[in-house]
Amino acid sequence: MVLMEVSEEVRDALDAGRPVVALESTIIAHGLPRPRNLAVAAELEGIVRSLGAVPATIAVLDGRARIGLDGAQLARIASGDGVRKLGRRDLAPALAAGADGATTVSATAFLAARAGIRVFATGGLGGVHRDWTHSQDESADLPQLARTGIAVVCAGVKSVLDVPATLQRLETLGVGVVGYRTDRFPGFYLTSSGEPVDWTVRSPEEAAAVIRAREELGGTASALIIANPVPESEQLDPALHDRVLDEALDACTEHGIAGQAVTPFLLDFLTRHTDGASLEANVAAVRGNVRLAALIAAAL
Ligand code: PSU
Ligand code: MN
Fold this sequence. Notes:
Helices cover about 45% and strands about 15% of the residues. The chain is an alpha/beta fold. Strands 1, 2, 3, 4, 5, 6, 7, 8, 9, 10 and 11 form an eleven-stranded mixed sheet that branches. Helix 3 packs antiparallel against helix 4 and helix 3 (about 35-50) packs parallel to helix 13 (about 275-300). It is globular. The two termini are about 35 Å apart. The structure holds pseudouridine-5'-monophosphate and manganese (II) ion. Belongs to the pseudouridine-5'-phosphate glycosidase family.
């Protein structure tokens, strides 16, 4: 049985050396509310195409890992019906069970790299949660990126996390981090997390040069994070962010939310308690990342 199916369009582009951008599906199925999520998913693919690259949204459908979805498949993922959240470790059980699932950063990066895709765009990465000493909750995104050769364009890590601890883990794991036109690590909904980054690139060409250097150097595969801040005009108001996030973290503890449910719970809480302002900042961040990823893929 074929476990991984690359769409014809994506296969042709890869064979011809044309730019391809991988997109994840957990953000669609579990990160954004319906029905907006399907509109955003289609918009993101449109942005990639408008810049001359081919979008490869990745998900599991009917027990097959799909690299590149058609409109109907995208709609199935967005419907959320029976769509599980799949990290890298969930892929084999999901494929064996013939299940449907949306892939997180860890699963998407793994599958994209296996298909030969070099650039991947998302919103914000998972990372170390604020109550780590108690819950030991660190996203599987981090160790997976430590052993996957792909460039990930993102607006940093989700601000619901312990950002300094996550940056420390990325350093320990040997995952490269460069800021895009900034020397501050972005804060997902916020333009800046306040934390510094050691390296800055100023254009898609400069980012592409880092990717090429990493690939040519060879050795152990690991990811490069290109951290692209949401524009200040589109960020969530920082005071509102801090206030609602505190409430969200309290609610998470109060309801005993754990494991894979934590991140979707927090994102949804923020959307509902900011009158959708956090949703707009999230979508603005993803849009910018997808755009930059397409420009970098073209520069490669
Ligand atoms: N970025 C977003 N929204 C999301 C995610 C990223 O803007 O919902 C998803 C990604 O799929 C990421 C996951 O891998 O959240 C992290 O989940 P966890 O903390 O359970 O590992
Ligand atoms: Mn987790």
